[in-house]
Design goal:
Elements: H1 12-17, H2 21-32, H3 34-53, H4 60-85, H5 93-110, H6 115-139, H7 144-163, H8 175-182, E1 184-185, E2 188-189, H9 190-208, H10 210-220, H11 222-227, H12 232-258, H13 270-280, H14 292-311, H15 316-338
Antiparallel strand pairs: 1-2
Helix pairs in contact: 3-14, 4-9, 4-12, 4-13, 4-14, 5-6, 5-7, 5-12, 6-7, 6-12, 8-12, 9-10, 13-14, 13-15
Amino acid sequence: MTAAPSTADPRSDDIDALPSPATRSQRWLARAGGQNLGLLGAMAVVLALFGTLNSNYLSWDNIQVIAEAVTISGLLAVVQTVVIICGALDISVGSQAGLASVTSAMVFTSWGSNAFLGMGVAIAIGAVIGLLNGVIIVYGRVNSVIATLAGLAAYKGVAQLVSDGRAQGYVLNNSVFVFLGRGKIAGIPVMVWLLIMAAVAVHILLKQTDIGRNIYAIGGNDTAARLAGINLNKYLIAVYALSGMVAAVAGILLTARTGSGQPTSGSDGLELQAITAAALGGCALKGGKGGIGGTLLAVALLGALQNGLTVQGVNAFWQNIAQGLLLVAAVVIQQRRTGERAVGLPA
């Protein structure tokens, strides 16, 4: 007996399969991330507030000033994101940048005004310092916070020792340094382009490669990662080497921007800015979670806030207090989201 033909609309299954507007919006929100949307909301408030208080705040010239000001801390925040995702921390990046700044300027002035030689030596020293941090942590079995806290003091001391505590060299008579520090491409400062390229490269590394997936795995559960055959020691040392090299690039840009090698001025506090931006951007300080997009939004937010407070004449000391409070707030929000109980309180 032949079955009766169906009278149902053959397109009904396709219609049912289509996501509802609510489902589409939920998926979009999930992709964007609540953390990023919160940062965008905070950015809108900051821009609206200071734009109302000062008519020049939202001018293109001031936006470029903000972008240039956050480039160095932004580079450090990008690489700090990788370190934190791996379940570690690098508190020495500011001191590394200061040492690289001094190195690039002193080699430049001492060896025939060769900008590329100065930059190359600075980056090589950054890589060595990063490797040293990684080796101490891995083979010395030293907690990453303690090891890099020691590095914070030691590398700053070395920079002050070789420079006698003063700015060294003068690089603004060189076209390469001038281009890096003051040049523009398509109306956008070269320094900003370098930050964008570094951020895109690290984003691709984390999201599109096996190396990135392994870094997330190590930070998420190092025991499971080890059982899966991932060489934790090799990855951790490599991540710290990367951190040292990027910190050196940041130091070179500091030299190009200021015109001379800076042992401490300009690099003090960069590590706090980098960690604050990564935490605000959604990095879990225990590792395994985070992304470059959120970190860049946090960098932009911190830069816009700092510039607005400066324009309004707010004392820099209060700006430091605000930065510390933001870091605490970011960690508190993370703890609440994960549902982790407070230390010393009953579950």
